[in-house]
Amino acid sequence: MATAISATAKTPKPDVPFLWEGRDKRGQRVKGDIMAPDEAAVRADLRRQGIAASRVRRKRESLKGGRVNAADIAVFSRQLATMLIAGIPMVQSFEIVAAGVEKPSLRNLILAIKADVESGSSLHEALAKHPLHFNDLFVNLVRAGEQAGALDTLLDKIATYQEKSEATKKKVKKALFYPAAVLIVAAIVTTVLMIFVIPEFQKLFTGFGANLPAFTQFVINISNAVRHQGIWIALVIGAAGWVFVYFKKRSRKMREVLDRMSLKIPIIGPILNKAAIARYARTLATMFAAGVPLVEALESVAGATGNIIYEDAVLKMRDEVATGQRLQRAMEARGVFPNMVVQMIAVGEEAGSLDEMAGKVAVFYEAEVDNAVDAMSSLLEPLIMVILGVIVGGLVIAMYLPIFQLGNVVH
Fold first, then answer.
1. Chain centroid offset of residue 320 CA
2. Is the pLDDT of residue 174 over 80?
3. Among candidate residues 355, 12, 303, 87, the one with its CA nearest the CA of residue 345
4. Which helix (H) or strand (E) holds 34?
5. CA 230, CA 238: separation in Å to the nearest integer?
6. CB under 8 Å to 144, separation ≥6 — which residues?
7. Which of 81, 250, 285, 389 could be cross-linked to 358 through a Cys-Cys bond (beta carbons 3.0 to 4.6 Å apart)?
8. Which DSSP symbol is given to 264?
9. Is the pTM of this model over 0.85?
């Protein structure tokens, strides 16, 4: 009987953030934010303060405090996993983690998940309400952990997976930061030379009364175009960039072409291939270790590869595995996985240790990505300096060629 009573008793709604606008007793417009269980409670509280609310709305996560990024989710996953492994109840774990978060948007996200869990939702259902922050892979792993009664262990695996993924992303971004910064500086220096320096040389050259070298005239023509049509050129370049990004996000065919081309770029292509294989193996190992059926796991693995070519290949593998085909044969048929990866997966299937062998593949290719990124950094630095030297040096030579010719005429 006690069980029936507790089951039917209403759980009080947790407080969530609201924004409100209205007028006070003097008729002046006022606004603010308040914590309350629902909109009716907000309006009642404001009436007690003598405020006539004209607008009340639930505060969105992105209203302040910046955007919640993948690194924030990785840290949140590790903290929550640590709390649960330590035996702290889930709701209390959310409260502790939220109290230590400085970014308001992340705190609001955690409190929103906590509110859903308190109201009776399972954790994977609460996370699924925030698809921008928790993808299908994350939600499926949490669901598997809840079903198996090993949520703390699964959250630990998720946290490890997120941390490794973020570490790889940061390493690649760090390798590309220096070349990108140098190229931006080169573009700024070149623009300054074109707008301010070359016109001064042009005034000097008009007094020579002789034809300018073709290279010098070419640079002067570019300078004139930049000075007189620079705004339009910048607008065209900006519009082209916007159109490119717009269609890249919305056109699957375009993404497929770009991803296929990116895999064939010298130096960068092999890194992208290895990174996609590493993500495939790491995600497969994590999903399979969580007890997720292979066919269902492959669906989440496909989206985690980060490249549409590998994504399509994994989805075709899923369809073949669903009809009874071995994973090894399905991988061989796609032709995108190295023979070593296929053989290790085959050994894992035979020995019943697919998660362990996939984990070893992931470790190997993650190390390969790290080494390749380091090698790329070492190669790009002198290459970028050569490009910068050619651009700036070429402009200087173009401006001094007429002076050299004038010196030869005087002699």
1. 30
2. no
3. 355
4. strand 29-36
5. 12
6. 154, 287, 290, 291, 292
7. 285
8. T
9. no
